[in-house]
Every structure is written in C-alpha cells, then in structure tokens.
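User: Here's a chain of 701 residues. Predict its fold as tokens.
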Amino acid sequence: MISIDRNAISINLTGRGLTRVPRKLFRCRKLKSLSLSKNRLTEIPPKLATLPNLEQLNLSHNQLTRIPSELGRLHNLWKLSLNGNQLTSLPAELGMLSNLTWLQLNRNQLTELPRELGAMSKLIRLYVRENQLTSLPDTLGKLSCLTILAANRNQLVSVPPELGDLVALSQLDLSENTLRSLPPELGRLATLTQLDLSKNTLRSLPPELGRLAALTQLDLSENTLRSLPPELGDLVALSQLRLQGNHLTAIPRELAKLSNLPDLDLSRNRLKEFPALSNLERLDLSRNQITMLPHDLRRCSKLAVLNLSANLLTSVPSQLGLLKNLRSLNLRGNRLTSVPMTLGMIPTLDLSDNQLTSLPPTLSPVFGIYGVHFNGNPVYDEPRPAQKFETAMSTKRAIIRDGTALVFHEVDGMPSLHIRFVRTLRVPDDGHRYPLPAGMGLLPVRACTDATGQVPAQWRQEYSFMIPLHPGETFWLALDGAPGRPCALKVGTGGINVISGKSWDPTSLQGGHRPSLRQHPMGTRPMQDYVVCPPQRWLDGYSTERGTIRQFVAVPRGKNPTVEGQLTGREQCGELALAVYGSRRMECFAMTLPHEPLPKPARVSGLGVGAGGRVSQKIYPDRRGSDHWEPDAFVFASVHFVPAAAWQGLTGDAPPAVPANPRLFAALGYPWFEYDESDMDDIEPAASLRSTKSVNEREGS
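Assistant: Prediction complete.
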C-alpha cells in the first residue's frame, strides 16, 4: 500500500514496481512535481492531465508504447522526461505545451517527430538520442529559445536547412548517424559552441562552417572526409578539434591560425605530409602515410607530445630533437634506417619496429628503460652484453641507465637523482654573457670496469665511470631530481669544487672522515659548496660571477690550462667527482666510501676540465641549511674524460661526432634559452674561481 498525501506538492514514486498509476494521485490538486520513473507502467491514464498545477513529470524507464494526447493540456508543465520507453510516435497535441522548456525522449523507438513540436516556443533543451529517426521536422527551426539539441545515435541521412535559424543554439550533437552532407545554413548558428558530427558518412564540409565564430569544440572524427575547407582556420575560438578516422590526404595551412587549439588528433587518415602547426602542444599523426616532415618544423616550439607511429618515414630531421618543449615522441612502426643524435634529448622516445641498424651514441639499445624503446630493429641482430650498458642494480652505488645517465638510488630502490652529460655549443670567450645554448645530444656513459680495452688500473673501481669528449668540447650536467625527495650534490673537477673553488678530492679520504657540506651560518648570504636538486636543474660550469658561470671545457692536461692546474699548480686528478647526499630526516642513502684509503690516480692520458665562455645561470641557495643533509651517508661517483679518438678502442663503440661549431649551430636553427630565474636568488661566487682564467686566456698568455 502506497501512502499519498493529497496536499503534497512533490511526489517521488521511482522504482516502486508499479504496473499502473495509483488513483490517489488524481486527488493531489496541488501537485507540482511527479516522478513515476523506473517502474513497469505500460500506459498512462488520460486523467493524469487533470492535475492543473503539474510542472515536472518524469515517466522515464517504463514500458510505455504510447502517450495520451490529453497530456497536451498540462499548460504549466516545463519539464517532461520520457526516456527509456518503447514509444514509436508522439501525439501532435504535445505541441500545445507552451511552457515546456525541457523535453527528454532518449532511448525510444521513434521514427519521426511531430511537426507541432515547433510550437513549443519556450523549449530550451531537446533530447532525442538513440531513436530510429531518419529526419527532423523543419519546424524545429522555429524554436528560438533552443540551446541544446541532441539527436545522436539515430538514422538521420540529412538535417533541414531550417536548423540554421536556431539563433540561441549552443550545443548540437548529430553524431552516430548516416549524414552524407550538411546544409550550408548551419554556418548561421552564431551562438554555437559545441558541434559533434562524429561517426557519420560525411565526405565534405560546407565552407560556411568557418563562420561559427563562437565554436570551441568540433568533432569530425570517424567520417569519410577527403579534405577540409580552409575556412576552418577562421574558427579562432576553437579549443578542441577531432579529425581522426577520416580519408584526409592534406591539411590546410590555415589551421595554423587556430591559436587556442592545444591538441589535434589526425590519426588514421591518409596524410602524406602536414604543415607546421605552430600553436599545438599535442599532435597525433599515427597511422597515416607520411613520408616527410615539414621543413619549418622548428616553428612548432610549443609541441610537447608528437605521435608519428605507423607512417612511412625513412628519416627525420635533426631539428625534431631540438623542439625545446618536446617530451614524448613516438616513431614506432616506420621505415627509419637512422636517427639524429638530437633525439637523445627527448625523455620519452619510441623507435620500435623500424629498420635501424645502428644508433647514435646519445641513444642506448636497452629496451624499455627510462622511457626509450628500440625493440623490433635489426640493431638487435647481434646481442650485446648487458653489462656494457648498465652495471648491476644496487642501492649502494651509482648505476648507469640507458648508457647515458648516472642514477643515484635510495635504499628503497627509488631513484633520487639522474645526471646526464649533455653536449652543447662552446660559446665565444669574448667577455660577453650568453643565454643557455641548446643541448645537442647526450654523451654515452660507461663503467670503467666494463671497458674492453686497456684503462689505467686506478680507474678500475666500482664507482668509476667514463665519457668520451673531443678536446675543446664543452658539456653541461642535466640534473633530474625527484620532486619531494631533494638531495644535495657536490661537484668537483680535478680535485677542485666547482662552486667554492676549494680543494676537494674524495678519493683521498680515509677512515670515518667524510666530505662535509659547507654553508655560512644563518643570517648571512649562503656561501655553499653544493647544489640542491631540485630546484637546480642543470650545471654548465664554474660559478665565477653572480648569475654567471663559465662553461666546462675538455682540454688536454699540461701547461696548467685546467682549473685544477691554475689553483693548485699541478694536474693530478682530472676527473669529475660527484657526491650525492640524502636528507638526515629521510636517511635515504646507504653507500659510503670504503674505510681503507682509495688509490690515488696517477698521471694518465685522460682529459682535464678548463673554464670557457660565460653563460647566464644561477646557483640557488640552500634554504634548508647544510645541517639538513646527512654527511655520513652519500653516493660517490668518479667520471673520467676519455679523448673521443680513444673511445672505440676502450668500449668498442663509435666515438661521438665532432661537436657543432657556431656556424653550424646557427645553420641548423638550434635555439638559445632565456630561462626565467627572476624569482630565484643566487649565491655569492668564490673569489678563487672569479680570478680563474679561461682556456682561451691561458692559451693567449
């Protein structure tokens, strides 16, 4: 027994298993809202129309096959929901609902709509999705208040031109029909913001669509479009455009004018080329027939994600790797036989299923590590020993990842810091300060214990690594610290701390003596001898002036051209020393140096490091203070610089190419980077490093 208050204003009988409408309802003369949804009703009694004050009526999800014409007398009704029934037609009298603003007819079996619906002058929302409609009445064009029309998942083969008269329409969904063409009158929908035409059979579009000035979302996916009108470039408000799954063979250059469009999906088309769309951040061109990339690709400076998988590319230009914001590049399933070394700067790179027989030294053929994929290439025909590219996994020392990065691990196995050695342009040493030059590929890193050729005995330590450099070449350290897990990094070259200019040679430490971190007391400007990662993202050289460093430059040792030689009068160490410290609170690092004395390196043929030209860069002060870091728990690595000419004899790998000179740098369009550090402070540089002469100055003396 259902209790019904005859004075009720709102009654909800949803999901009560009703097979008929309770008679007591007809006594509720004050009733304004009634829900009978999710029952088993097969008919609605005409007497329901005797409720004069009814404003909302929900009859959805029943088993209704017809609606009584008497419902057209409910003149106060503003919302009517008939979703999920078995209606095949509607009475013409529904057009008499002059105050109706919301009509829901989804998921029925309607084959047509009565023309009288055009008399609902206040109708704002009309939902007729998932029916069997083959057409819409032209009288819908009279609904001057209509803002939403959803007619998707029907069998529409056309829409009436009168829809262009819907002056208030903001959303139009015609997806999943069988539309072959569109009337040009749709270009008159001045207030339209969302238009979904996906999953139809459209072969072309009227150029008048370019007049939809308010349009922000346009879905044309899964049609049979062969071309696009250039006028689409006039849709300046467009922020979402979907074009995947068509038959497009070309893209109009006018789309480059869409300044508010961050991403574009052009996958599964028949494109052979595409224009440089300079405003895009994400671009999907997978499963096309692209054979070449645009010559002005460097205009795409905002591009962060680019998918070119399953195309017909045989080569890619080096400028692709120079797009400064590119973080993910998918080239899987093309016909590439070689790739430029500049791709080594892209964090996530997929080169699987190509025809690569060799790789540049900036890339490693270790599949699936650190976001770089190479499987399915002939380069795997001759298996290489894994230890050549990666030392055994351990939490007690730095390891090599991808043959290009030193990774310092915490005891829980989570990486705390990745350090990569990036080739770059040696800026002129002319007294001027230059912006940061672009990276030109990663230098390979190998464990000295894995060397196949003869290396000095002093190098064969578990913490010793080596990289190849050409004499006179410069590089910078890319520091990828884990967010929320900061660490302190101390760097030295030739036994000299690159921040403080003080002697620092960890290999001479004995017993419990460990390399400490220096910083002035609180209340004075920090004078620290280390960097904190994050926020420090890179280190290009020696801290010599406020906001300025002098580049690391590889030089042969002798006649004291190195910073070590100038400050100590001798050249014994040469190598790069790295010590990474964890937080006292986290107690994160487990590795310490052995208690016995470490062997002192003798004079060897490795290169040393001198100072080069000036570039803009700050060394950020440690706001935590040096006491935050645990001096007795750190990971140490020693990196030796091998002359490039000797690299193949030591490792079996080809040496890196000769570094680019300024003329080639400019010709290839390599960018300069003005990194905004205005909100970051800088430490005071050491006087000893400020007075250090550059390599050029030493050679001229």
